[in-house]
């Protein structure tokens, strides 16, 4: 059975500009068959991602890890469910970045996850300070899915927003990370200029020099 602890020391790159894109980007170098690295390998990694995105508090993260240690089967089901959603998100927004329509199976999967998330939203507050919160009772069967709710919501909100024309895919040959191009002249080409941008410039310089 899969490990449920994870590697809390890994620092996820959150440069996508949107939660659902950051989640889709948890695989490094997707286009490199020999160098691709998946950083979500168990439910514990999913918890670490949620903590770093501040979807849950460290206390909530520790609570989830403790429950996962006791209920490994449910935790692993939630982990596998998260990977299925992540790949649909990647395919959907990659298609949009390329100017294409989202395939229906991926659209329906995102829709289903977003509708499920809505069931767990509740308004809380008092007087003039109200806000949406996520509702999951301690020990509830769906507690291991709670990390997916805000991710699914962010995907649905992005799909129905006016920002779809800003969705881009990194132009580096092996990267394929997704991001929102919110630069002034909408000319951002790489997920991270200091990494993929410099690597691509160096590669092109080498190719020109050795022609």
Helix coverage percent: 40-55%
For the largest beta-sheet, the strand count, sense and barrel status come to: 2 strands, antiparallel
Named at the architecture level, the CATH assignment of the domain at 19-164 is: Orthogonal Bundle
Report strand %: 5-15%
What is the highest CATH level, the class of the domain at 19-164? Mainly Alpha
Extended strand count: 6
Task: Give, in order, the helices and strands.
Answer: HEEHHHHEEHEEH
**Rough shape?**
globular
Give me the secondary-structure category: mainly alpha
Mean pLDDT: 87
Number of helices: 7
Q: Please give the radius of gyration in angstroms.
A: 19 Å
CATH topology of the domain at 19-164: Jann2411-like fold
Q: Termini distance?
A: 51 Å
Spatial strand sequence of the major β-sheet = 1-2
- Uncertain runs: 201-210
Summarize the structure.
The chain is mainly alpha-helical.
Written account of the structure:
By secondary structure, the chain is mainly alpha-helical. It has a domain at 19-164: Jann2411-like fold (Orthogonal Bundle), CATH 1.10.3300. 47% of the residues lie in helices and 10% in strands. The protein is built from seven helices and six strands, in the order αββααααββαββα. The chain has helices at 19-24, 43-52, 58-70, 72-97, 104-118, 148-159, 193-209; strands spanning 27-28, 37-38, 121-126, 129-134, 167-169, 178-180. The strands form three sheets. Strands 1-2 form a two-stranded antiparallel sheet. Strands 3-4 form a two-stranded antiparallel ribbon. α2 (43-52) runs antiparallel to α3 (58-70) and α3 (58-70) crosses α4 (72-97). The radius of gyration is 19 Å and the shape is globular. 34% of the residues are buried. Mean pLDDT is 87; it is low at 201-210.
